[in-house]
Specification:
heterodimer, A: 313 residues, mainly alpha, two-stranded antiparallel ribbon, B: 308 residues, two-stranded antiparallel sheet, 11 helices, 2 strands, 66% helix, elongated
């Protein structure tokens, strides 16, 4: 098992390496002088020269990559000339809203999707099953921002239950924090619910045909215990895997949802950076999100082999 | 003498015409039928846009800004005659007719769906065949694909878009890039399982050359899964285009696309929700139809994956 963990960890390195190379090359693919691109539109010649010297842009491209990657590994993400801050500071200031949104979304999605999926599998072929599956296809088909505006229109504008937009940090009071978080989190959770409910249904359905489920029924076990203790537990691996893969959807959704609800998080930062053509910030955010995505999926893979004795590598 | 071949190879019903059989199953599948019909209607709508009671979707009219759906307006032509035009879906904040923009918007969305699906399937197919069959290149291609897949799709699309000047081509390329690795993986996995099949080994023994082997014996196995994958790519392409345009980093705002109409409606959303509502409905229905078509195709063409 230790061998597997080690191999799995090692396999992550080339993936992250390639992500780093791709993100590094991004700036070289833009038309024009990278130093001028980094400095932005209002930079002086002296500033551009300073950047050129600092990043070693007059040296071979391999050396440039070395300098850039070295800086990264030292936690130096560079400087945003548009926001006039180091990117490290910029990202730190934006993490709380994004993390809160992501956690709230995951919580809602898992709490809604897993019971729905189990129910659909249990009532396989019934109208409940069809409604859940129909909702799941619908969830994949409507863009996040349309759902967001629909919810804003109904619950914020018409009913007035929630504020229309905005974010309040948790330090500004828990009530206001939650009140402003609910609509965006529900919005973002729709596609996630669709994904998880679908996978839960499929894998529970598969487990329900196993012999040990019949045995459990034969010995008179209560149905709810059969479903949640026997079936769901054994169906957990594909469900957790899809939760991990779905992080990519979640990250994409964060970018859109933060724009709809005017939440000052990392997603909004991404869009602002693209609109301002602030490449160092774009690079840093993409790198950060990708590392998080890869790390979470690595964690999930490793968790299997720790918690599921059936899995041998 | 004519009966002789059937003694060697027993003729199964429909064995000679597998395509006809598949086609019959397809038409009987309700998801394929409904999804296909809706898509056909949308495609016809886009195609026939000029004849569906629309006016120029880019025509700005400062005197008719932000009108609610159903409002009528008198249009004076050059020769002095007047016609009454009804803004079925209202107007946007530049006075453009939302109905006309929505109808014309179908063109862009469907065009993007088809071109993204076609190009990403073609590129993915070639790379997947190479990766699956030419071992030394496998590791190189797949590590590169792993790297691409580690970047969340929408972020990758945003990154690609930021490299170009905003425009249709940039958006199409941006949506294609994140889709390619998924196609490559699919094709590669099929090739890896097919290359062990006895008939492929037999073909190799006969001295079939690599290009012919690929085209005649391996490629046909990828067609059904790729058609299914292609529909799902088309669905996600429509969504991603809308998202990019909505964020203001997609197709230039004067082009009528569903995403652009909604992006334009953002600022006046509280008072005039119709700018987001109508294109949203059309977009949702279209993507739903493509997804239904995909599910139906998967169930009929690729029974192994049914119900996933």
């Amino acid at each position: 098992m230790l061998g597997y963990i080690l191999r799995r960890l090692l396999a992550t390195i080339p993936v992250l390496g390639i992500v780093a190379v791709l993100v590094f090359l991004m700036l070289r693919l833009t038309p024009g002088d990278p130093a001028a691109v980094i400095a932005g539109d209002n930079a002086t010649t002296a500033q551009i020269e300073a950047i050129r010297a600092k990043l070693g842009l007059d040296q071979p491209i391999i050396t440039q990559f070395g300098i850039w990657a070295g800086n990264l590994l030292h936690g130096n993400l560079g400087e945003s000339f548009f926001f006039k801050k180091t990117i490290g500071e910029l990202i730190l200031g934006r993490i709380e809203p994004t993390l809160s949104l992501a956690f709230a979304t995951m919580l809602i999605a898992v709490c809604v999707a897993i019971p729905l999926g189990v129910l659909a599998a249990y009532k396989h072929g019934s109208w409940i099953d069809r409604v859940v599956m129909g909702f799941s296809v619908l969830g994949f088909s409507v863009p996040v921002f349309v759902i967001g505006y629909l919810l804003i229109y109904v619950f914020a504008i018409t009913l007035g239950w929630f504020p229309v937009q905005g974010y309040q940090p948790i330090s500004g009071g828990f009530g206001g924090f939650i009140q402003r978080l609910i609509l965006p989190a529900v919005t973002l959770s729709v596609i996630y619910i669709a994904l998880i409910a679908r996978m839960t249904r499929a894998s529970v359905l598969e487990v329900l045909s196993e012999d040990y489920i019949r045995t459990a029924r034969a010995k008179g076990q209560v149905e709810s215990k059969i479903l949640f203790r026997h079936a769901l537990k054994n169906a957990a691996v594909p469900i957790v895997t899809v939760v991990g893969i779905g992080i990519a959807l979640l990250i994409g959704g964060v970018v859109v949802t933060e724009s709809v609800f005017a939440i000052p998080g990392l997603g909004r930062l991404t869009v602002d950076a693209v609109l301002a053509r602030d490449y160092p910030t774009i690079q840093a955010v993409i790198l950060l999100f990708s590392v998080v995505y890869v790390a979470i999926n690595l964690g999930i893979d490793l968790a299997y082999c720790l918690f599921d004795p059936r899995i041998k590598y | 003498m004519s009966a002789e071949p059937s003694l060697i190879a027993p003729v199964l019903p429909d064995a000679g015409r597998p395509n006809a059989n598949a086609l019959r199953r397809l038409v009987r599948n309700p998801a394929v039928l409904i999804g296909g019909t809706v898509l056909l209607v949308m495609a016809l709508m886009g195609l026939l846009a000029p004849f569906l009671g629309t006016i120029d979707p880019a025509a700005i009219n400062p005197s008719a800004r932000n009108r609610v759906p159903g409002v009528e307006r008198t249009i004076r032509a050059d020769d002095g005659s007047t016609t009454v035009f009804k803004h079925r879906m209202g107007t946007d904040s530049l006075g453009r007719d939302v109905y006309s923009r929505v109808v014309y918007g179908a063109r862009v969305s469907l065009m993007i769906a088809v071109s993204v699906a076609a190009v990403s399937i073609s590129i993915g197919l070639i790379l997947g065949l190479i990766a699956g069959y030419i071992r030394p290149l496998d590791a190189v291609i797949m590590r590169f694909m792993d790297g691409l897949m580690a970047i969340p799709a929408i972020l990758l699309a945003i990154a690609v878009v930021s490299l170009f000047r905003a425009g249709l081509t940039a958006v199409i390329v941006a949506i294609i890039v994140p889709e390619i690795p998924r196609v490559v993986r699919l094709v590669r996995s099929i090739v890896l399982s097919v290359r062990e099949e006895p008939y492929v080994e037999a073909a190799i023994m006969q001295g079939t050359r690599l290009p012919l082997l690929m085209v005649r014996h391996i490629l046909p196995n990828t067609i059904a899964p790729l058609i299914v994958q292609g529909t799902f790519i088309a669905a996600s392409a429509i969504l991603v285009e809308a998202i990019l345009s909505f964020l203001g980093i997609g197709i230039p705002p004067e082009t009528p696309t569903w995403g652009n109409i909604m992006a334009e409606g953002r600022n006046v959303f509280r008072v005039f929700p119709h700018n987001i509502l109508y294109p949203g409905i059309f977009l949702g229905i279209t993507v739903l139809a493509v997804n239904m078509l995909g599910d139906g195709l998967r169930d009929t063409l690729d029974p192994k994956m049914a119900g996933r």
